[in-house]
Amino acid sequence: MYCLLRRFLFSLDAEPAHRFALSGLSLLANLKLSRLVADRLIDDPVEVMGLRFPNRVGLAAGLDKNGEYIDGLAALGFGHIEVGTVTPRPQAGNPRPRLFRLPAAEAIINRMGFNNAGVDALLANVRRAEFPKRGGILGVNIGKNADTPLEKASEDYLTCLEKVYGVASYVAVNISSPNTKNLRELQKDAALDDLLSRLKAAQARLADRHGRLVPLVLKIAPDLEDTQIVAIADALRRHRMEGVIATNTTLSRAGVEHLPHGDEAGGLSGAPEFRLSTAVLGKLAHALQGEVPIIGVGGILKGEDARAKISAGASLVQLYTGFIYRGPELVREVAASLRRA
To answer: Less Cβ around it within 10 Å: N or C end of the chain?
Structure first.
């Protein structure tokens, strides 16, 4: 069924197709008809970061930036949903076109630029959603506004953390998008130490205020040298971060150079990123020695890919581009594959 729907969706421009598909999922959820496109959630509970996940497959940030479609997506059997990236103030993102499909490679290039309605709009949407009220695991991915100077970036992250802390199961700190100018500079030693130090201090204050510790998770890039991976692992341990997401999209164009849209600027995701992101995950896991749990993302288009992420050291996995190409079937396939693992 999804193959037929995908043919229609792929006949549309990417951004309108995205909104159309998510609106359709929300409508089915509201009408209690989600079972028309998805089977029941696969029960395979696992505890990670002090949270009990009903299974190990989640939705990566980026698909539902404003938390508008949480219930429709949750009905597809995900063990957790991550919304965002959200910034303190609304922003339009980069000029269109900014989202490109590469079907021959089962890939996407995007240069969206953290387009979102701002953290207050996201909060309103999350509070309307039923999924968190039923105990669903909801991650909120936070970033900085494009016009915030890099030296003041921590203020944006702290603003978002303060606002989303009460509604999030965990908070993911996105310093690895290639589509906000110089953002990846925050992955470097001194900048990363300063940011994580401030975030952890704020987390401690907020935990006292709310009576619960909300895990902080760092999302890193796949385009890192081995020495950078080790340095990030050291920082994660030193600041006692609760988790890390490996990885965001890549600037590499290996495997798509000669395809239509293969030379577009932005982050590449999907099948061509699988080996690179999994290699970074494995190196990170080796450096961390099990001290910080890893969520594996990047190029998962079948159950075997997800098992490779777990074998490389991940505790959980997330889908994004594979979900666009394979649809709800992939969620069940991955969850079932990991239950057998």
So the answer is: N
